[in-house]
Design brief:
The longest helix is centred in the last third of the chain and has 13 residues, at 132-144. Strand 2 (26-31), helix 2 and strand 3 form a beta-alpha-beta unit. The strands form 3 sheets. The chain has an 8-stranded mixed beta sheet. Helices cover 24% and strands 28% of the residues. It is built from 6 helices and 13 strands.
Length: 193
């Protein structure tokens, strides 16, 4: 019970001010697509931040975006960017204090300028306390299947990416040719290769 908020306007401000309304020392963002500008802005928050690029496993990453992200996160102990090997299209924003979820939003808004700054285009809704446990399980599963540095092969390709990805150039794409799990590297049954 209780009132749960739904946001569809000023999502950028909602994300970047929630730590002032909820107890947190950390923010974790799972996003299908990501843009460099909001990730850079995370450095201004008094929180440890983790951003998981969800669709990396299916779409790879452009050289341009990867070098931007690498530059932003290099030498910053409070910012981690992870690359999900499983295709994850979710958009989930999680605040934690000492490893426990204290607040979470989920919806359709990617962690990119388009996803967060266009009114009415996307929504984010507050989750209920009873979703925190399954959310934690979901998050841990994604983190377990993510890479800190993408294992990459450069392919000259024109993979079309979601238009939420900022500064995408289609001339070159970096795509993992295999996935990894606890047993090691493997080819997915329908990788398209």
């Amino acid at each position: 019970s209780g009132v749960y908020m739904l946001f569809y306007d000023n999502l950028y401000d909602v994300i970047f001010t929630s730590h002032t309304r909820h107890i947190a020392d950390e923010i974790i963002i799972i996003s299908g697509y990501i843009g460099p500008k909001p990730i850079e802005a995370l450095k201004n928050l008094p929180l440890k931040a983790t951003v998981i690029y969800g669709m990396y496993g299916e779409q790879g990453i452009s050289n341009v975006l990867y070098s931007q992200l690498d530059e932003i996160s290099r030498n910053d102990d409070d910012l981690t960017i992870l690359y999900s090997q499983m295709p994850v299209h979710s958009k989930i924003y999680i605040w934690r204090k000492e490893g426990r979820i204290t607040y979470a939003l989920l919806g359709s808004a990617n962690f990119s300028i388009n996803g967060l700054k266009t009114s009415f285009r996307e929504v984010l809704g507050e989750t209920t306390f009873d979703t925190f446990k399954p959310l934690e399980t979901y998050l841990n599963n994604i983190i377990e299947n993510s890479l800190v540095i993408p294992e990459v092969s450069v392919l000259k390709t024109t993979t079309i990416q979601d238009n939420n990805a900022d500064n995408f150039e289609a001339s070159e794409c970096i795509i993992p040719l295999y996935l990894k799990n606890k047993k090691g590297k493997y080819m997915p049954p329908s990788s398209g290769i």
